[in-house]
Amino acid sequence: MGLIIGVDEAGYGPNLGPLVISATVWNVPGDPGEFDLWNALRRVISNRPPRAGRPQSASGRPNGPASATAVRKRAAKLHVADSKQVYSPARGIGPLESSVLSLLGSQAAFATLSDLWMHLCGVAPGTDCPERWFAGDGLALPLPLCADEREIATFADRLQSQFDDSQVQLRRVASDIVLTERFNSQTHEMGSKGAVLSRATLELVRRVWNPDHDGPALVIADKHGGRSRYQGLLADVFDVIPMCLDEGLQRSRYRLGQSEVRFEARAERHLPVAVASMVSKYVRELSMEVFNRFWRRHLPDLVPTKGYPTDARRFRAEIAHVQTELGIPDAVLWRNR
Q1: How do residues 298-324 score in pLDDT, each as one tens digit?
Q2: 5 bridge partner residues
Q3: pLDDT digits (tens, 9 = 90+) for 172-229
């Protein structure tokens, strides 16, 4: 048995909302460097979107009766791919939510965003969280937000059956949700947001994987911007100097004992990275839903934001007077880089 670990992020570019980094850990039979997860799970998972044909609802689900039989017929396979392919504002969060909660269904069920946050991070923001939208009952957002619960349950059962048949296990899914105040503080300390991303990514991998005890593993992460050298950071986080196998624009590879760590361009073509991408995007979208609801309680006509630079500046200007009245400092609202 071996491990395949995929890591990816969502929310690196915005000025508002958290940066979310997720890791998925898979037990596989045999050599993790040779095992094809797409093939092993092909009866249930596809990287191609469901075929068009039936009218879609606003949540991205087909309109019409939602009997258990209809649910099974309308989506023969679960869509798993880079989150940019599964989610779009036009389709809504429904397809992404259905895929993510179906995959996580083999581990736990989540009634609220707080439950999901606790499962992924091990701790949720408390009532003293300076980002008030996440404090108190902010994380009580009910789940699923709009996906079909019966479809989720059906896929979760099918996935578990396929896991059993293929001797594959989704062993763990974990996230690091980097809130704005921490992001700003670490960016100032480390000198760039790229350094924050790289450090947080490897610390998350270290949290879910102990190379001394967990056996041989293949760790795959997307490359971080133009960075090609990770050897020093790996040595710092894992307290061992890895062997550099190659470093280049497309891929950087390192050996840690019996395991290999790769940073690749377009790493989302690997299923574990695609799932990490989707989990990160889902948590990021739910977080922005909570963020927008908070501000709309004070400004009911406020147009919601996704937090990306141009629209974030518009949003920031429109909430400025309320921000001042509530005494919310820029350090917990606005990401400086």
Answers
A1: 999 999 999 999 999 999 999 999 999
A2: 25, 219
A3: 999 999 999 999 999 999 999 999 999 999 999 999 999 988 889 999 999 987 789 9
3-state secondary structure at position 6: strand
Instruction: Give backbone dihedrals phi and psi of 45, rounded to 5 degrees, phi first.
Output: -115, 140
Place of tokens 């969502």: 10
DSSP tag of 142: B
User: Are 265 and 250 spatial neighbours (Cβ–Cβ below 8 Å)?
Assistant: yes
Query: pTM to 2 decimals?
Result: 0.92
CA angle, 159 then 164 then 169, to 5°:
75
Q: Calculate ∠ Cα 65-115-3, nearest 5°.
A: 95
Which residues 6+ apart lie within 8 Å of 226 measured at CB? Answer: none
DSSP at 302:
P
Contact 95, 281 (CB under 8 A): no
Long-range contacts of 125-129 (CB under 8 A, 24+ apart): 125/179, 129/179
Contact predicate 115/122, CB 8 Å: no
